[in-house]
Write a structure and sequence with these properties.
Layout: H1 2-21, E1 26-34, H2 41-51, E2 61-67, E3 69-73, E4 79-82, E5 97-101, E6 105-112
Parallel strand pairs: 1-2
Antiparallel strand pairs: 1-6, 3-4, 3-5
Helix pairs in contact: 1-2
Length: about 110
């Protein structure tokens, strides 16, 4: 389960930001997770609660914004939304797609005390 390692990295980011900006508690963490990132939002919620124990982020709520996958069709030159990498272009049926969004996972914002 790579979500555990991802959550450890999220907690490290939160702790670095707490040190840099001098806050003492995190109420919530908002994450952007792309549809093509291979990250399971529910696993992130569970793992974050475990990893955040005894840290500045203990008890923090996790809010997740799911971002759609987007690709550029090299055949018809259109930007399209995709849910999986193996989809074809709904406009022309081509599989020559270049992913342009939806692979990201980032800490978008923190609610702090």
């Amino acid at each position: 389960m790579h979500e555990m390692a991802l959550c450890q990295s999220i907690v490290e980011i939160v702790e670095e930001e707490a040190h840099r900006r001098s806050f003492s508690q995190v109420r919530s963490v908002c994450l952007e997770i792309g549809a093509l990132s291979h990250v399971a939002p529910e696993a992130i919620r569970f793992c974050f609660a475990v990893v955040a124990t005894r840290t500045i982020a203990e008890g923090a709520a996790v809010r997740i914004i799911e971002c759609p996958g987007v690709a550029w069709c090299m055949t018809c030159s259109k930007s399209i939304e995709i849910a999986r990498r193996d989809e074809c272009c709904p406009c022309c049926g081509s599989y020559q797609l270049q992913v342009t969004a939806g692979e990201e996972m980032r800490v978008k914002e923190l609610e702090i005390d």
